Amino acid sequence: MEATVSVIVPVYNVEHLLERCVDSILGQTKKDLEIILVDDGSTDGSGGLCDAYAKKDARIKVLHKENGGLTSAWKAGLALATSCYVGFVDSDDWIDENMYARMYETAVAEKADVVVCGLVYEFQDPRIPGRREGSNFRRKVYERKELEAEFPRLINDGHFFGRTIQPARVTKLYRRLLLEQNLQFCSDRVSVGEDMQITFPVLLDARKLCVLPDFYPYHYWITDSSMTGKHDSAYLEKVKRITRQLYRISDVKKVYDFKPQIRNDFLSLSVLAVKNEIYRNYRAGRKAVVEHVRQICEDTMVREALGSHTMDQLSLSIRLYIYLMRRRHYGLCYWLVLVFFKAQYYLGREYKRQ
Hints:
Spore Coat Polysaccharide Biosynthesis Protein SpsA, Chain A; 4-stranded mixed beta sheet; 8-stranded mixed beta sheet; 15 helices; alpha/beta
């Protein structure tokens, strides 16, 4: 049986969760799948589990490689893919049994380059209910001209994190050829916003996009540790890295000038960088944290974004915070996060994977 969809699963040290993930793929109502498990240098029993699955089901291919990160893993999996369409499932997540049947049927019926579904955030803490997230594309079918009409708001529509594009690989079924043609934009060094560097250029090349509304077959697992998170002193540099990639994509594709939107998106991420520094590094002491906030806000790219962003749909609280950053009131930034913006900071965590 020739596979019509290749499903790529990057695997790294998820021995306790891998069976849930792989079993959900094997249980798909669509049986003509090619399942590619990429063991990215796991140090637990994940690699052995992959091999055991391959022995039980001929549809499974396993690749063991040195650890290189998420992007390097799915790229390695793509090199083995043979199907016309490709999907991705991360190894700590799982999917509903009809996910690929419905997405593939839509892709074939519409001759689509990309099909988009929604996802459900599933929390390890049973007290937190699951939360759905759908696409910000409102039409079911976008021909090329209709897709181009979305370009003026694709990355930012004037709101804080006002993305029409949903970067996640895992909620897409892609035409394999488009993925392969855009691998040049996928740097293994990017560790924040990895998915954006493939979804963005693919959408710029797509001739037809289909959206499945009210369909949430992907389950994204959020552990207690990812909820609490850790302070990342390199977060801004990571954000700058993906931002430079987006600028490059815009320059190379030349289908629309996305620079103002990319700058807006960067500023939104920079605000999170400040809040990350204040809320997650508060034990370093006020003086040290305020100095780190100053360093973030004095960064050349941040200063430019603060002075020239075009977001005109900001809430009062975000406008105030950006004003304080621009006017260099770093002490007030510190106290506002600790006292007034705690809830908003937690809301911003939903963008961690982007």
